[in-house]
Amino acid sequence: TANPQWGGRFAEGPAAIMKEINASIGFDQLLWRQDIEGSLAHARMLQHVGLLTSEELIAIEAGLKDIGAEIENGTFPFSEALEDIHMNIESRLSERIGEAGKRLHTARSRNDQVATDFRLWVREAIDGLLGQTRALMRALATRALEFHALPMPGFTHLQVAQPVTFGHHLLAYVEMLARDCGRLADTRKRLNESPLGSAALAGTSFPIDRQMTARALGFSRPTANSLDAVSDRDFALEYLSTLSIAAMHLSRLAEEIVQWASGAFGMVRLSDAFTTGSSIMPQKRNPDAAELVRAKSGRIAGDFLGLLTVMKGLPLAYAKDSQEDKEPVFDATRALTLSLAAMEGMVCDLQPCPERMRALAGSGFATATDLADWLVRELRLPFRTAHHVTGQLVSLAEARGCDLADLTLEDMQQVEPNITAGVFDVLSVEASLASRTSYGGTAPANVEAQAKRWLEELNAT
Ligand code: ARG
To answer: Which InterPro entries match (predicted)?
Structure first.
């Protein structure tokens, strides 16, 4: 038999496969709270403008409340034949309260209804992710303060470059995550317009009050063009692109944790709580959570690209293609939620190995730049010349199999006669770190101040 919600002109019901490919109830039930909230706002507005009586409104409010309870306690009879969450709830309402329930869909279409519900859902998800991201930033800043002076090797090209502090490295991620928060907030602001009342695509002939429903649902204003409102999903794409970038940041940190925890680096240790063993190799401690966070970024970027590809080339206004907007958004939200929580756990859990970090920080002639800078400062050599002189000294030390600091003053003077013993003061890891006092540099005093600034800011809001 035909669908009771729209079957008036249909003689027969859909093929089994038609039903199956058409139904979204399997995944869009997640929108039930938003759907009820949207219907309540719509019904109150209909009553306000005289399209429903007060008795009808009271019945609708009570009916929707009961339906919410049914869904919450698992007794709601979800039906695939009713396609989606919107028709499931509306049909159940009529079943429970009769005629009044059948009036709810006045001046409304599923097209503006789903666009409204989905915006409400994404808005709430943004708020959740913002809170989680800030919690991770707090964890990173806390560890950064703890390790503001702990030397670690700074890399470029994954080759030891110059010493930095572990705190400085962790705070780099706090900066990245702060920009992710900015993008989330920005996405939220732009999506916060109400499509409700756009109806199917052209607006409605009923004297509705879109300002009233927009306000009731916490939107800043109603959308200004009904075609745009039911057809575009750029808010979901913006959300997914923001999540893709945030996941990319987490993935980079995850990759670093994998490296640091490897035997070859030996820079940090994760506790038993954040490692797994091997079913064959008894000695193993694998950083699976970090690897999964690294992988989730691929999945989230795929969700973004998937929806972008669905939307590309869709003519205005609504087409059923748009129903495919939900799964990528739900999937990416879940993946990032897990990733943020796992990353916060690992950041709190990990313990650096200070001796190993310090040893690596000074390896590979990591203070060669400090030597070149000394030649510029003390002998007034042009930097390019100083670079060349230092290169010759590195090459000499390499030939001897020793560090720069192990060369004698005579060795040095053979390359540059004006060098004095003062040069040895700048060749230690600690001296190198302490000298990097330029704004944003890695000097421990800078890092300590930055960590405190972040903690203050994060605790203030
Ligand atoms: N389940 C649909 C969706 O997610 C609701 C809108 C259906 N509209 C329509 N004209 N068939 O997009």
So the answer is: Arg_succ_lyase_C, Argininosuccinate_lyase, Fumarase/histidase_N, Fumarate_lyase_CS, Fumarate_lyase_fam, Fumarate_lyase_N, L-Aspartase-like
Taking CA atoms only, the protein residue closest to ligand 1 atom 1 is: 84
> In this structure, which residue's CA is closest to atom 7 in ligand 1?
110
Q: Which of 6, 114, 310, 329 to mutate to test the pocket of ligand 1 (most atoms within 8 A of CB)?
A: 114
Instruction: Give the count of alpha carbons within 13 A of 361, CB side only.
Output: 23
Nearest 5°: the CA angle 6, 214, 237 is 75
Whether residue 365 has its Cβ less than 6 Å from ligand 1: no
| Cα–Cα distance for residue pair 103/84, rounded to 1 Å | 19
* pLDDT for res 378: 97
Tell me how far the alpha carbon of residue 116 lies from the centroid of ligand 1, in angstroms: 12
Residue 352 bridge partners (DSSP): 268
pLDDT one-digit tens code per residue, 398-457 = 999 999 999 999 999 999 999 999 999 999 999 999 999 999 999 999 999 999 999 999
Q: What is the DSSP string of 43-100?
A: HHHHHHTTSS-HHHHHHHHHHHHHHHHHHHTT-----GGG-SHHHHHHHHHHHHHTHH
For residue 401, is it left (φ>0), alpha (ψ between -120 and 50) or beta? left
Residue 232, ligand 1, Cβ within 6 A: no
Give the bridge partners for 162, in sequence order: 154
Taking only the tens place, the pLDDT of each residue in 54-85 is: 999 999 999 999 999 999 999 999 999 999 99
